[in-house]
Amino acid sequence: MTAIDQENNSIGPAPVARRVLIVSASMGAGHDGAARELAHRLESRGHQTRIVDFLDMPPLGLGRFIRWTYQLQLHFAPWSYEALYRLWYMLPFLYGPLVALDSFLTRRAFQRAVREVDPDIVVTTYSLSALVLGRMRKKGWLRVPVATYLTDFAVHPLWVHPSVDLNMAVSPVAAEAAAARTGGRACAPGPLVGEKFRSARPDRRVARRALGLEPGTRAVLVVAGSWGVGDVVATVEAIASSGRFHPITVCGRDETLKLALEERGLGTVIGWTSEMPALMAAADVLVENAGGLTCMEAFAAGLPVVTYSPIPGHGRDNAQTMAAAGVNRYARDDDELQVVLDELSTPGPVRDEMIARGRALFAGDAAVEVLHLAGEQPLPAGVRPFRIPLRRRVPALGAAALMMVYGSLTLGAQGVAAMGVGIARPPHAAGPRAFVGARVNAEDLADPAITDLLASTKMTVIVDARTAALAGPQLARLAAQGVEIANGGWGRSSSLRWERAQADVARAGDLIHRSSGCRIVDFAPGRRLDAFDQMWSRRRRERLVMADAVIRPGRIPAQVRAAKVYVVDGRRSDPDELRRAIVQFQSRLNTAGLSVAPLKQLR
Length: 603
Description:
The chain is built from 24 helices and 20 strands. With about 600 residues, the protein is α/β, with parallel strands linked by helices. It has three domains: about 5-195 and about 365-385, 3-Layer(aba) Sandwich (Rossmann fold), CATH 3.40.50.2000; about 195-360, Glycogen Phosphorylase B (Rossmann fold, 3-Layer(aba) Sandwich); about 425-600, Alpha-Beta Barrel (TIM Barrel). Strands 2-1-3-4-5-6 form a six-stranded parallel β-sheet, sandwiched between helices. A six-stranded parallel β-sheet has the order 9-8-7-10-11-12, sandwiched between helices. Strands 13, 14, 15, 18, 19 and 20 form a six-stranded parallel β-sheet that branches. Mean pLDDT is about 85; it is low at about 1-10, about 390-395 and about 400-420.
C-alpha cells in the first residue's frame, strides 16, 4: 500500500481540513508543475489550497524583470549564470542583502496572501521564496510552519534556509544535502508527478502510430524545458547523425527553435504540448539538459533518461548528482551519446535497472508530509499568522541592484558577445569552408563588376538601411540570383542602447526586406554587441553574426582558417579597391583549400 493509500484509509476520526498557502514561481514549468500537483493531492483529500506566484509579489513588475533577466542569461549569457551559481557555493554568506531586499519587496504581498488564506502552513516550490520565508520565520513575522519542496536533485546553498521547518526532496541524496546545509529536518517523499505518468500511461502502439513511427524505429524524445534553453539544435543533430535514432523534439514555447529544426528536417518537431505521457509512451529514451520536471515524469513513466550538454549551473549539478544516484546516464560527448542511446534503447538488464532506480524515488507523498507538519504546530487562538514589521526603506540597495542589472545588460553583455555567447556559429561538421560576408555601400552596388562578383562568390551581402534605400533594385537582383542579403544595421547610432538596437535590428531589417524582397535572417552590425541587440534579434528571429576577422582592402591576412567568419568591409574604399580585395581574399581561401559559404549556413 502506498503512502497515499495509507493516509486515505487510516482508521480514526476524520482529518482536520487544513488551509495551505503554496508559493511557486513562473520560472519555466518545473516549479509551477510541482505546486499544482501538490495542490491537487491536498484538495483531493478535502483540504483548501491557494497557489501564489512569488514573481507577482514585488512592486513595479520587478518579479517579471527577474524572470526576464534569468531567461536572458540562460539563452545568451550562460557563462554568467554559471559564474553566479558557483559564487554562492564559495561565498554563501553574501546572500543576506539579497534576501533582505526580496523580503522588503514582497512582505506586503505575503501579508495580504496570508490574511486572505489564513493558512495552517505555507509551502514553497521556489528557491528564492524559500529564503524569504525562512527569514520571515526566523524573525517571527510568519508564525505558521514553512515547508520547502526542492524540485532538483542538486541542492544549492541558496535553495534552503535553516529556519524553514521542513525540506522535502525528490531523492534521498537531495534530502541528505538539505539536512547537512541547514541542520534541520529533511525527507525524501519523491517527485511530485501526476498519476497520468505513473499508472495511466497511454498505449505504446497507439502513441507510436500517431507519430508515424515504424515498429522497429528507435525513438529518442528530446526536451529542453518550456523555454527551449540550451544548444538543442546541436543535440538533435548529434542524435540524428548516425541514422539509427529518430529524434522527437519538444520545443516548448520557443518558436525560433521549432523553426530551426523544421528547416533542417531533423526528425519530428513539436511545439508546446500537453501530450507528454503519450510522447513518453512512444519513445525509447529521453534526452534532456536540466534535470527538471520532465525528467521526473520520465522516472515515473519508466523511460530511461540521458543527460547531454546540460545547461550551466543547476543543469550540470543535476546531471552529475543523478548519474551518481544511478537514475540517469550523463553523456559527455557525441560518441558517448551514441553508445548510451544504443544501450538504453535496447531491452536488457541495464535498461531495466535504471528504470527501477527511477521508479524507486516515488517512496512517499509530499502532501502527507505537509499535513503532518501542519498538525504539529497549531497556531494559538487569537494569534495572527503574520505580523508585518516596522516599515524600512532600502532605496540605495535597490538603486545599486538596478545599476548592476543595467551594467550586465550593456558592458557585461559586450564581454559575453566577445566570447561568442549568443552568436551564430559554424556547424559541427563545417568541413573546409569559411563563412564570408561583404559589407558594401550603394556606390559598390551600382558597379556591375562588384555585383557580378558577389553573385559568383556565394558571399553574403551585408548592407545598412541607408544603402538598402538607395540601391533597392540592385539588392533585389542579387536576391533573385540566390545571394543572401544580411542586415548591417540602421547606419546611425543612438545614445539609448534600447533604441539603437530597435533601429538596427527591427527598423533596418524591415527596410532591407522591403528593398530586396528576401527574408532577413542574419544581423551583422559593424560595432560591438550588447544584450539589447540579443533581445531584439531573438524577437525578430535574426541571428547575431560577429566576424572572427574583418578584411579591409590592402590588408588581406596571410593565413585563413576553416570554420571561421570573415567580413570583407568595403565601406571606406572605392569599388575597384573592394573588388580587388574580394578577388585577393578568395584566392587566399582557394590556396588554403577552403570554399566560401554564406552566413546563412551558420547556426
